[in-house]
Amino acid sequence: MDVGHFTPIEETALLTEYARALDSRSLRPILGDTLAGEVVGKIDYDFAGLGVIASVVCLVALRAKMLDERIRAFTTEHPDAVVVDLGAGLNSAVFRVDPPPSVDWYSVDLPAVIKLRDALLPRRDRSHSVAASLAEPDWTDAISGDRPTMVVADGLFPFLSERVVVAIFRHITDHFESGMFVFNDYGTVGRIKRFASLVTTRKRMFRTLYSQWGFGGFKDAHHPETWNPNLKLVEEAGALHEPDVALFPPMLRVGSRIAARFPASARNTRILRYQF
Ligand SMILES: C[S@@+](CC[C@H](N)C(=O)[O-])C[C@H]1O[C@@H](n2cnc3c(N)ncnc32)[C@H](O)[C@@H]1O
């Protein structure tokens, strides 16, 4: 499949899928998503030229695993649930989680990405695609709001403006009556950090990611509650504290265990979960 028409923001979906594919091919996979490898193999794109580094492979795989575990727990408790994956890209979480057959799963992304997703991922009953921009409130039009809902976002918010991020956080509880909202978070991402990443590497991966980075983030995990008091923080989990860090390559493992001791670096790889 040709993706030459993809915009830089749409291209970010290729990067995370490639990271999961690399993880699945490693000797000691963290996520082990073999479907990601199959999907990547069908796309005509210079994946190797991205220069994806080991830390990105490990962290993308680990955060997906952490999000999967939370979705699995929610859908096990609520077999009538709806799962909504915001900025789903090519992520095959619906196959990894394999929720009860009564769960409806919606994958929302920009039209070009959804077209590629529908062409490459296997069909599955009750798995639905929504081609829409999250910058507009109509992304929920086709999704019922009266069932227990798990809203998930993996690697999405850095690529939106703060105005759009806040609007999404508010729209979720306007539309969905009850549920959970879970996403990976990077803490605060200042201009200096972004600039440092640009000048210290020539890897195309960083250009793809950081040139599109639009959201400065927040330090205090309670901050989104000031945007929307209907959201209640119920979990802040650091990826670097997970036992799966033992599967990282040796140098990265040591570095991650040191980084986990510093709140600022631990925040860069956290999973946040809110109840509504
Ligand atoms: C880094 S990728 C992550 C994709 C996927 N969640 C994953 O884990 O592979 C960010 C995704 O957000 C999507 N995205 C960015 N802006 C969007 C918007 N305004 N509306 C919908 N999707 C958007 C991109 O198209 C891309 O698929």
Global outline? globular
**Assembly type:** single chain
Rounded mean pLDDT is: 93
Query: Count the strands?
Result: 7
- How many individual domains? 1
Strand order of the largest sheet: 3-2-1-4-5-7-6
Using the CA coordinates, give the radius of gyration.
Answer: 18 Å
**Overall CATH architecture:** 3-Layer(aba) Sandwich
Quote the distance from N terminus to C terminus.
40 Å
CATH topology name: Rossmann fold
| Spans where pLDDT lies below 50 across 5 or more residues | none
The biggest beta sheet, please? 7 strands, mixed
As a percent range, the share of helical residues equals 40-55%
Beta-strand portion reads 5-15%
Class by SSE composition = alpha/beta
CATH class: Alpha Beta
**Elements, N to C (H/E):** HHHEHEHEEHEHHHEHHE
The CATH homologous superfamily corresponds to Vaccinia Virus protein VP39
Number of helices: 11
Tell me which ligands are bound.
S-adenosylmethionine
Describe the structure in your own words.
The chain is 42% helix and 15% strand. With 276 residues, it is of the alpha/beta class. Strands 3-2-1-4-5-7-6 form a 7-stranded mixed β-sheet, covered by helices on one side. The radius of gyration is 18 Å and the shape is globular.
Q: How would you summarize the topology of this molecule?
A:
Elements: H1 8-25, H2 34-41, H3 54-77, E1 82-86, H4 93-97, E2 104-109, H5 111-120, E3 127-131, E4 149-153, H6 162-175, E5 179-185, H7 191-199, H8 204-210, H9 223-227, E6 232-238, H10 250-259, H11 263-267, E7 270-275
Parallel strand pairs: 1-2, 1-4, 2-3, 4-5
Antiparallel strand pairs: 5-7, 6-7
Helix pairs in contact: 1-2, 1-3
Bound molecules: S-adenosylmethionine.
